[in-house]
Amino acid sequence: MNSTDQKTAQADETASAVLRAVADHFTDTNPTDVLEQHSLLVCVGAEAYRLTERRSDGSGQALSKAALATMPEVPAGITRGEFALHLRRAAASHEWTSDDNERVIPTIPAPRKAPVPAQPQDGER
Question: Which of 19, 53, 64, 65 could bridge 48 with an S-S bond, Cβ 3.0-4.6 Å?
Answer without folding.
Answer: 64
